[in-house]
Amino acid sequence: MLRKRMKALALVVALGLWPAGAAGAPGVDPAPVRATSGGGWVDRSGFGELVYRSMLEGYLVGSFTGFALVDASDPSSTLRIGLGGVIGTAVGLAVPLLLSRGEARSGDVVLMGAGHGIGMLNGFFVPLTIQLLPCSGVLGSPACPFPLDQSRLDAALSAGLSLAAGGLAAYFGPRLNLSPGQAEAVGSAALWGGVAGFFLGTTFVAYGDRPGVALGTMVGLADAGFLAALYFRDFFDMDRARIWFMDLGVGLGAGAGLALALFISPSFVNHTGLSLAILGGAAAGWAVSYFATSGLDGFKSSAPPEKATAHFGSPSIRPLASLARGERAVGVQIDVLQGRF
Amino acid sequence: MRPHLAVAAAAGVLLSSACATAMGLPEGTTVISTTPSGAKVLINGTEVCSTTPCNWNEGDGLAQRYHLQVRKEGYREIDFYLDKELRFFSGFFSVVAFRMPRQVLLTLEAPDGGTPPPPAPGKAPGL
Question: The pTM is what?
């Protein structure tokens, strides 16, 4: 009895000390060096996030692959979903730990995560939308039967496209050289576009009547948001926390819009009205959080403008002397175009 | 049995907290050091340190990126962005959190054409 008690005591003490041991273990803290790309310095500020995102991606891809391999005639094959998640998480942990040797910039890592996300969304919802287009009822109803094989296909495509899009984002990320805020905006713009697209779709047709319409507009506007944020990346060169607040603003605003509509008329069930209320609330939430968080962009206050600019200023004339191939030449230089490249 | 468990758990929590506090400065504080010392540090354009080494606290902790400029007469200016990083087990209650680095070690270099100062013993060149 005493031995059992001692064992239990030792277990509790070990569990209590575990976080401290983990925090104090070597290798948990980042190396005390900070850097920016270039100049021979290696920026690995995004390594912790790379590990986290890689594990998350591994878990999702593994689970989706497990789902894609489920056999309807063999109930025990559903075990593959859980095991796929475990294996994927382990692979996701191992890959960055073993392979990441060079730079791991936060911006590149966040963009890779956004690529994974948009790939997964397209891989799942594009085929699902096509499958649901003939449907005229909620998913699974007699008007919209949905066999397991169809969703297995969606899961397989989703896993594959997620890996491919993430790989492409990881490849092009260093060339784009986005800041963490810009990269976060690319992923979040897909989220904002998806929310707007879904409720824009339900403005015209109720989800239960034609689910393919809402899902189609959701995927379309999510992709449009992703590409728009990439194109307008100078506008989104802001602190990452601002983007998080805008995510929060969209979510809370959508909820507030719905609550306001139902507060005004509790029996209001018109899908067009509710969708517009949600859209209006989300837009208002986005705008409020955008303007309310401008103070977080302090990092830009002392920075020179990054954008290449060129303008036609007042032409200036200056004397010019040169020495080329041993011959001296004297002339006059007229500056017409002035710029920063 | 239960009192024993409660006492043991409480001891574990207290010891963990004591270890975390003893490990260094409060969360959000960054030690900025340069080789050679005595440099001026500006963060987001505001001078936060007139002579290194010094401690800097980020304040409310909401911002995720800071612009650092380190200046010392006779040396090339260092100008870069400091991004928060995702850290695991960064505190007793936080399994994952975005944190500033606890230490920033910088080696100042002479401008082009000049003679670089000898590196301090025991420190790697570069950042």
Answer: 0.76
